[in-house]
């Protein structure tokens, strides 16, 4: 790269060189600051009629949009996205990784690091869907998701898709976080179970992203904790440990990332409150068993009587109100919140993921007002997360 070129020009030159020298692995765009919903974009090489093309996949919450370009056209198109609307771009090559970031004031900064990916033979344009998590990862074999040859077992296809979907969502959100430079990222997974997603997340952070990560899985069942700690030792996942305790009682260090997937009832609120008090950059929660609000909901002259008289519909309404209240409380605490379909409703009815990224751009007072209006309209008086946040301040 030319030393006198500006960072953006250096990055584009590095992209062109990698494509010319066939060392290009992939390119990712993040920190979307344009209009509409947040999105990420990933460019890879494909072969179309035996000629190399750039394929750019833009991921929205409910769909992916794919565009295919000739090499020069692809470089020009991607160049037009860098700096606006995408404020971050990472180029992965055989020789090094190149990352371009724009500050809040729009000042670009470029950095180079050791390579984390290797260029592969371009796949044909009509190839089957590929997943972000390779099926031959050692932890998938250790957890018996894959066989010894790295093939996903037929009975574990659903679990594998769940792992891939979770890492796909997490990868998008991590690119928006502003972690403290030079420090290991601390992550806590509350209700980690057998550790499928815990191992996947730790492996992605340390292997794919090359980040220093200290991760703790919290699980009440001591037999699963022993199993997971043994697997972590065997896999040499030195920064990963599991402890046997309840979320509300566990003595945990502050966390940069908090995960709570299908933590039962108010354990979800305990996890969110812990994340907020920690000043976590990212909170990921898939709520389950929302029982607290259901007995409190009543018709407050809002015309809900026709809905609430049917027990099944009342419970579903309680689920929605509970999670809406959680999302608003997270916003009121300074988080940008999205509700994402986590897995197919055919796999589980509890398929909503509440994703919260710490942000100074959130209208906290508006979110607090909306929470109060929701509470007044539906008649609930207590909410476990709200009760924990009355005097909460980041650690």
Helix content: 25-40%
SS field, number of helical segments: 11
Q: The CATH topology of the largest domain, please?
A: Rossmann fold
Strand portion: 25-35%
Shape from CA axes?
A: globular
Structural class: alpha/beta
Number of separate domains = 2
Query: What is the mean predicted local confidence, pLDDT?
Result: 86
Main CATH class of the largest domain: Alpha Beta
Q: What string, H for helix and E for strand, traces the elements in order?
A: HEEEEHEEEEHHEHEHEEHEHHEEHH
pLDDT under 50 segments (min length 5)?
344-348
Beginning-to-end CA distance, first to last residue: 42 Å
Going by CATH, the homologous superfamily of the largest domain would be Vaccinia Virus protein VP39
Radius of gyration: 22 Å
The largest sheet, given as strand count, sense and whether it forms a barrel, is: 8 strands, mixed
CATH architecture of the largest domain: 3-Layer(aba) Sandwich
Give a count of the beta strands, DSSP E runs of length 2 or more: 15
Provide an overview of this structure.
- The protein contains eleven helices and 15 strands.
- It is of the alpha/beta class and 395 residues long.
- The protein has two domains: 7-124, no CATH class; 138-388, 3-Layer(aba) Sandwich (Rossmann fold), CATH 3.40.50.
- The strands form two sheets. Strands 1, 2, 3, 4, 5, 6, 7 and 8 form an eight-stranded mixed β-sheet that branches. Strands 11-10-9-12-13-15-14 form a seven-stranded mixed β-sheet, sandwiched between helices.
- α4 (157-174) crosses α5 and α9 runs antiparallel to α10.
- The protein is globular.
């Amino acid at each position: 790269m030319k030393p006198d070129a500006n960072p953006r020009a250096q990055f584009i030159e590095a992209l062109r060189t990698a494509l010319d020298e066939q060392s290009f692995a992939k390119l990712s765009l993040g920190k979307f600051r344009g209009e509409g919903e947040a999105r990420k974009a990933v460019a890879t090489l494909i072969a179309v009629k035996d000629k190399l093309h750039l394929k750019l996949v833009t991921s929205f919450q409910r769909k992916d949009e794919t565009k295919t370009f000739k090499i020069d056209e692809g470089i020009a198109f991607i160049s037009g996205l860098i700096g606006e609307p995408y404020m971050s771009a990472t180029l992965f090559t055989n020789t090094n990784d190149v990352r371009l970031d724009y500050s809040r004031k729009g000042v670009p900064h470029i950095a180079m690091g050791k390579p984390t990916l290797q260029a592969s033979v371009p796949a044909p344009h009509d190839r089957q869907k590929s997943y972000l998590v390779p099926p031959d990862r050692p932890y998938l074999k250790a957890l018996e998701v894959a066989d010894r040859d790295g093939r996903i077992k037929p009975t574990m296809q659903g679990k594998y898709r769940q792992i891939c979907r979770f890492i796909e969502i997490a990868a998008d959100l991590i690119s928006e976080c502003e972690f403290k430079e030079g420090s290991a990222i601390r992550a806590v997974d509350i209700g980690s179970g057998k550790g499928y997603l815990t191992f996947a997340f730790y492996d992605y952070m340390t292997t794919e992203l090359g980040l220093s990560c200290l991760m703790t899985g919290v699980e009440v069942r001591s037999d699963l904790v022993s199993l997971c700690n043994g697997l972590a030792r065997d896999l040499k996942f030195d920064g990963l440990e599991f402890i046997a305790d309840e979320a509300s009682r566990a003595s945990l260090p502050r966390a940069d990332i908090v995960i709570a997937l299908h933590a039962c009832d108010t354990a979800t609120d305990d996890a969110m409150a812990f994340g907020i008090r920690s000043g976590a950059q990212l909170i990921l929660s898939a709520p389950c068993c929302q029982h607290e609000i259901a007995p409190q909901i009543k018709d407050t002259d809002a015309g809900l009587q026709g809905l609430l008289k049917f027990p099944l519909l009342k419970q579903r309404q309680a689920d929605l109100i509970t999670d809406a209240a959680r999302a608003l409380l997270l916003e009121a605490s300074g988080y940008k919140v999205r509700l994402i379909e986590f897995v197919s409703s055919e796999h589980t009815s509890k398929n909503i993921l509440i994703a919260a990224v710490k942000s100074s751009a959130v209208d906290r007072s508006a979110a607090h007002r909306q929470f109060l209006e929701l509470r007044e309209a539906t008649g609930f008086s207590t909410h476990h997360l709200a009760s924990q946040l009355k005097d909460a301040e980041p650690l």
